[in-house]
Amino acid sequence: MRSKLFVPGSRPELFAKAMKGEADAISFDLEDAVDESMKEVARKELRKFLVSLPENSGKVIIVRVNGLSSGHFEADLKAIVCPALDLVNLPKPESADDVKMCAAALAKVERKAKSGPVGILANIESPRAYRLAAEIAGASPRVEGLQVGYGDLIEPLDVDRYNAAVVQSILLHVRIAAGEAGVWAYDGAFANIKNTKGYREEAEMARRLGYVGKSCIHPSQVPLANAVFRPTDEEIAHSLRVVEAARIAAEKGVGAFTVDGRMVDAPFIRRAEHVLALAQKLGLVGEGERAIQ
């Protein structure tokens, strides 16, 4: 999920167009991008579109719902839970209990809809959530990832959103929290659409810190994210050598070995397997190189 394109739930004319684009995931938004007066209309339009999709649409389908205390949360879930839905993006969770409430509500709706299970992408976008990020990540088996929400997290604190040192600190903290729970981390939005250089630099920083992708608020940002989070030819070649060396080492009962002058053990093998899995998905690895178990 290198790229995730936000699409307002109140703009049904954009739904099909977004699905035909290059983004790996489509994140339909029922929260901040939808005016209060349009919430019910957006739910109905999105419901109509989601149930028309096949279970495997070729995209990761995500919906950012309204928060638990918004008065819209339960209605949102009832509208969107269907076979095509992959993840609910939970905004502004403040604790593990909030995630558990979301998980319980999902389970209830799934039973009635005879659909699911749906995963949770939890946003880290408040000082308290930032402090409790690892607990939020580990609150439920449904949590598949954490996502940074820069605007709500730091702008109310008068912190410069585009200070690279600040962004790096946030990204590292959330990535470590996600790692403790064994889930992935996803980078948040970059509001200055015209600043392609800034978007790319921030995406590259996130990639170096182990993030799987970055949000896009405009289609023009999608190719930037896809390019940054694509495994390089060098990474693919090295990973192939690591996996092959690991196979030989296992046959000999050796736990650690060297590849390209670097020591390799279990964490590096897992990283190589992850790189090759993504490369295979993107069609970057040939048929004779696909035997990864």
Describe this protein's structure:
With 293 residues, the protein is an alpha/beta fold. It folds into 2 domains: 3-228, TIM Barrel, CATH 3.20.20; 233-289, no CATH class. The chain has 12 helices and 10 strands. Helix 2 (39-50) packs parallel to helix 3 (73-80) and helix 11 packs across helix 12 (266-281). The longest helix has 20 residues, at 233-252.
Count every beta strand, where a strand is a DSSP E run of 2 or more residues: 10
Q: Estimate percent helicity.
A: 40-55%
Biggest sheet layout: 8 strands, parallel
Question: How many H/I helical runs?
Answer: 12
End-to-end separation: 21 Å
Strand order of the largest sheet: 7-6-5-4-3-2-1-8
CATH architectural type of the largest domain: Alpha-Beta Barrel
Strand content: 15-25%
Uncertain residue ranges: none
Number of domains: 2
| Overall pLDDT score | 92
Name of the level-1 CATH class of the largest domain: Alpha Beta
- Element-level helix/strand string: EHEHEHEHEHHEHHEHEHHEEH
- Sheet/helix structural class: alpha/beta
What Rg is obtained from the alpha carbons, in whole angstroms?
A: 20 Å
The coarse overall form would be globular
Oligomeric state: single chain
Fourth-level CATH superfamily of the largest domain: Phosphoenolpyruvate-binding domains
User: CATH topology of the largest domain, anyone?
Assistant: TIM Barrel
